[in-house]
Amino acid sequence: KTFHRKLQSRKLFLHRESLETILSKAEELLNKCHQDYTEAYNNLISHRSHTKLAEYYDMHNAYVQQLHAANGMLEYYHKETLPKLLEELEDVYIDLSDTISGSILSAADMLVNKSREQSNHYENIATTAQSVKTRSDLANFIRSLNVEKLSQPSTKHLYNPPYMEND
Fold first, then answer.
1. Can you tell me the distance from the alpha carbon of 166 to that of 59, in angstroms, rounded to the nearest whole number?
2. What is the tens place of the pLDDT at every residue in 28-80?
3. Distance between CA 24 and CA 29 in Å, rounded?
4. Is 12:96 a contact under the CB 8 Å cutoff?
5. Selected residue with higher pLDDT from 134 and 2
6. pTM of the model
7. Which of 42, 50, 62, 118 is the most buried (most CB within 10 A)?
8. 15: closest CA among 75, 95, 77, 76?
9. What is the DSSP letter of 31?
10. Position 15 confidence tier, pLDDT thresholds 50, 70, 90
């Protein structure tokens, strides 16, 4: 699920980049049209003629048309396209954040349960250790050994004087 969202966010960023590239090219074209328009105006001022006037009108119309197109593209991008892209990106990141926080919560729950089991285990050991009665346990242990049945009569070693091998 996160991989799909990662791809989706990448596509959104690429889409935004391509749109911004288009807007930048429109801006460059607008600057070029303005430069041509200014040049045509300066040519008309310095050399008044019908061809210079026609060229000036053509450049003026091209500039105004490009100005209108660039402003329309910017307006549409900022009012329509960009908010939709950001909304979709927000959905991606909210979903991704929910997925990650759910995974972290599951891992934390698992660790809590494991800790609880270990705690219960150690509490049982502690309870058992507290319930030990040393004297009675020792007495029971000695009784369980059956010392009377296992013990053999004690025999003493008698004194043996040294002897000669030839005897």
1. 148
2. 999 999 999 999 999 999 989 999 999 999 999 999 999 999 999 999 999 99
3. 9
4. no
5. 134
6. 0.56
7. 62
8. 77
9. H
10. confident
The token pair that represents 50 in the structure block: 């019908």
Please state the length of the chain.
167
Element (H, E) at 96: helix 82-130
Contact of 63 with 36, CB cutoff 8 Å:
yes
What tens digit of pLDDT does each residue of 116-154 get?
A: 999 999 999 999 888 888 888 888 887 888 766 655 666
* Residue 6: per-residue pLDDT: 74
- Give the closest residue to 64 by CA, choosing from 33, 100, 32: 33
- On whether the CB atoms of residues 59 and 30 are closer than 8 A, the answer is no
At 160, list the tokens.
Answer: 């043996």
Token pair for residue 54?
């026609």
User: Tokens standing for 129?
Assistant: 């250790």
With contact defined as beta carbons under 8 Å apart, do 36 and 62 qualify? Answer: yes
Burial 9-38 (b: 16+ CB within 10 A, else e): eeebeeebeebeeebeebeeebeebeebbe
